[in-house]
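Reply to dn_fold:

You asked what the input looked like. This is it:
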Amino acid sequence: MADPNFDIVIIGAGQAAVPLSKALARKGRTVALIEAEHLGGSCINFGCTPTKAVIASTIMLALAYGAAFGALQQVPQMIRGVPEVREEIRDLAPPQAGQVTGRIAARMTLVSEVGGLMGRTILALLVVRILSRQRLLRLFQLPAFIMLPIVFGLAATTSLTWLYVGNFILGVLVIGQFSFWGNYLPRIYPVHLRGTGESFAINTGGRLVGTCFAWLTATLAITSDPAYAPTKVALVASAVGFSVLFVGFLFSFWLPEPGKEER
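and this is what came back:
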């Protein structure tokens, strides 16, 4: 039977008790650490750490969804403003013009989704090489908020070819971020809060608040000039997308890092 005697008995495994018991054990002392429930104390299990994680992840998911819904999903409304498309449909009847723009919009959506698939693949390769979750996310955020106004503010009003290219790149950078959250959220919450924390961040931040940016872009892009409408959609989407991506980049510095054992 093991010796029930200990050099030191610590009652309560709070934030100070756990590292203290480890330090004493490394010095050769026999230590008993007594805790009724969760190691680490109330702060990391119920208080400041989970609260910070919920607030930061909810806001950032809202912004990530905002870039997708407020900018990328507005591309079909921009098609008619591209010079090549405008020239192609100029002499067509409305039904035929609608078919042309519909085919281009479908191809544009496919390009974006392929870019998103590549972005998710790139993130999956990087996640095992870059330990800092903040740094990993910013690898996608930084080029995204630089590229988005160039693509929608310039390419969407001047060149169909460059709009295809830019839409693919934004698919990589914006849609690819969604896989980050699937990897990050299960690691940042204590086990007993994972279901609640993840659900709140995704459903409230992403699906409720984030999708509202589509309404914001559509509302701000309203114009009485039908000929200018596609261009205004592109410019508004550029402003909305840049804003949410830039704010998300700033909030990434506040994002909690998972513990070493969770990475």
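The longest strand covers residues 8-11.
Hope that clears it up.
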